Amino acid sequence: MLKLFPESEMFKLNTLLEHLRTPLFRNGYALIISTGITSLLGLLYWTIAARSYETDNVGLNSTAISAMIFLSGIAQFNLQETMIRFIPQAGTRTLRLVVTTYGIVISLSVIAGLIFCIGISIWAPALSFLTESAASVVWFVCALILWGVFVIQDSVLIGLRQALWIPFENAIFSVSKIILLLLLASSFPQDGIFISWTIAVAAIILPINYIIFRRLIPRYIAQAQPPSMDFSLRHLSKYVASNYVAALLSNMSSALLPILIVQLAGPTANAHFYLAWIVASSLQIVTANMATSMTVEGAMNQASLEENKRRATIGIARLVIPASALLIVFAPLILQVMGPSYAQESTGLMQLLALAALPNIYNMLYVGLARVQNRMRGVVGVYAANAVMVLGLSITFLPHYGITGVGLAWVISQTTIAAVLFLLPKLRHYRMLSLEKGYRT
């Protein structure tokens, strides 16, 4: 019989297929592919926005989107991490856990949106266009609800080990945004960017949630065992509360930056910042995706946690290190596509953000491991340190270095946190050895 492939090639193919069948890598790579699709189409989206809308409008709309994401993070109560951590152990109570989470997120989104709109002149006067009419307020609140559901549904898919759906979902969302962006450019030159974003979200969450509730959850429950842990409110509340604080701090270090830049440097500076951030932050998202997959697998089988951590580290390093190097080298060319002013103003920022993605690998793997082991004090500590340093240093550097100073703040923050996380266990070990030596003498 004629052999189509040499035995060595067949061995490599079988090894690759076995690698991809491993849930850690299958779900992790699905999330990374989703990030790649979102980043590439996002780059196209913001390039079109930069060329189709006035720079000030790009800056204001990107700030509105950041405000929406930040407020949605508050309303989500970081329950997306709860889904990822506890769906693998929820068993037959999965449906109840998911429905309760949706209800909480929707209710809190309404409250957060109304409070923000009522006090917008205090905390974000530059975004007053969001409250010009009752219809604008309703639209913004609905956008918060839609974004909250959009984020939660992804975490449900991850918890169900069905992350393969996410690249398709995000591809449809990203393409829809681009089409709407072009259609709305002439009719809504001031807020067409924000409108395109929210309509695209509304279009995708309906079919995805139909699949989740009619197919995936029933199939999961049919194969599941009774819950493998205590799902009482008292038990979950400790984890949720710590995670919520961590989520707020994480959102502060990213979603608040555009608002800060608009207030200190103006909407044009924020337009230059935001487009570079969209591209460079994809490296951090790649790391977070694989760390999230590690969390899911660790929750299902904590005995293999260290092995999964080792494999996740190798998987992330193979992707992020070369991608970071390429982004540092080709940042001027990438930004030139968006326009000469972006290449001139944003190159240093993008290069520094790409550099900051390297120590971020160590930090996110620590966070993923700590979540599985319920060491939430460490998770909160990482995000608190990052928020304080990024925001504090950004305020200090912006007047002197412009938006490049924000990139410098990220490099300093991520490197400092990684160094502390690396050295702290060693210092504790040496301290224990010293104490033992003292006791013996």
Features:
single chain, 441 residues, mainly alpha, 16 helices, globular
Description of the structure:
This protein has one domain (20-440). The protein has 16 helices and no strands. It has 441 residues and is an all-alpha fold. The chain is globular and about 65 Å long.
Could you write a compact summary of the structure shown?
Helix content is 86%, strand content 0%. It has 16 helices and no strands.
Layout: helices, strands, pairs:
Blueprint: H1 7-21, H2 23-52, H3 55-76, H4 79-90, H5 94-118, H6 120-123, H7 134-159, H8 165-184, H9 192-223, H10 233-252, H11 256-265, H12 267-300, H13 305-338, H14 340-372, H15 376-401, H16 404-440
Helix pairs in contact: 2-8, 2-12, 2-13, 3-5, 3-7, 3-9, 3-10, 3-11, 3-12, 4-5, 4-7, 4-12, 5-7, 7-9, 8-9, 10-15, 11-12, 11-15, 12-13, 12-14, 13-14, 14-15, 14-16, 15-16
Total domain units: 1
**How are helices and strands ordered from N to C?**
HHHHHHHHHHHHHHHH
Mean pLDDT: 85
Structural class call reads mainly alpha
Number of helices: 16
Total number of beta strands:
0
Helix fraction by DSSP (H/I, runs of at least 4): over 70%
Distance between the termini: 76 Å
